[in-house]
Amino acid sequence: MNATLKNGNCIPFVGLGTYKIRGKEDVYRTLKVALQAGYRLIDTAAVYRNETEIGQSLDELLPVNQLKRSDIFITSKLGPKDQGEGNCYSACLKSLSNLGCQYLDLYLIHWPGTQGKKPDDPGKLKNIGISNFLKHHIQELYDKTGVYPDVLQTEHHPHLVQTDLIQFCKETGIFYQAYSSLGTTTQDNQILTDPVVLEVSRKLQKSVSQILLRWAVQEGIGVLPKSCNPKHIQENIDIFSFQIPEEDMKLLNSLNRDKHYCWNPKDIV
Q1: Closest CA to 213 of 33, 205, 221
Q2: How far is 201 from 252, CA to CA, in rounded Å?
Q3: Coil, helix or strand for 58?
Q4: Contact call for residues 181 and 212 (beta carbons, < 8 A)
Q5: 156, 135 in Cβ contact below 8 A?
Q6: pLDDT at 119 exceeding the cut of 60
Q7: Active-site positions?
């Protein structure tokens, strides 16, 4: 299932997150299961240090699965140290080279630490976007460039529902894409153990992960679940065969604590 960006391009609602998935064997095994399960969006970044392994694995796996490069949506991100016109251009070309791609479907400015600019090279990037930006960061970007990005990728889950930011993105045509939908990988994962989430999971007889991912997608928000576990990879994309009832959506929406479990960009001016 795809969403349509403001420029008319399509982006899958569900993608595979690859943060901390490194090494050719782990990357290959994870992508093999993901492609077979139906994932068509692969999300990486320069700072994840796995672009080369992803590119090599896709080069082997796409033909085996009767897929072409155009069937896959690849996202990468500009590292904070590479922001600035000259550095940005070089970093973008390096990511393309690492991934073995002629183009990226989406290139994000990973962090709003400094003012970033897209490389002026038509054909290399299908869509441009940002990650971890708040409303004032996006507005500053627009004031300087006259352009709103196509995508905002940011932390989003029932404990962190940035209503004003979501509404701003809707008004400006920015697709809102969530990372850390399932919380963090620490043992003290307060989202996966939230009593309301557990009750909705029990009621609908779906896993907690499926409830959290379906909740976001049902609100029109993209998700990027990450896992190396074949069962979880398959389970995390199987979220289009059911709906969460309205009363349960309201319960999940009421859990907001404005709690960041990952990055918090509020101190970046």
Answers
A1: 221
A2: 11
A3: helix
A4: yes
A5: no
A6: no
A7: 48
Q: Is the pLDDT of residue 265 over 90?
A: no
The pair phi, psi for residue 75, each rounded to 5°, is -110, 135
> Token match 């990226």: residue?
104
Q: Give whole-number Cα distances, 187 to 92, 157, 196, in Å.
A: 35, 17, 19
**Which pair of structure tokens corresponds to residue 91?**
């970093």
Pairwise pLDDT comparison (122 vs 61), residue with the higher score: 61
Which one, of 162, 167, 160, 170, lies nearest residue 212 by Cα? 160
Residue 129's nearest CA partner among 111, 152, 112 is 152
Q: What is the pLDDT of residues 168-220, one digit of tens each?
A: 999 999 999 999 999 876 667 899 999 999 999 999 999 999 999 999 999 99
Q: Give me Rg for the CA atoms of the chain.
A: 18
Of 159, 188, 184, 132, the residue nearest 259 (C-alpha) = 159
The answer to whether 44 touches 50, Cβ cutoff 8 Å, is: yes
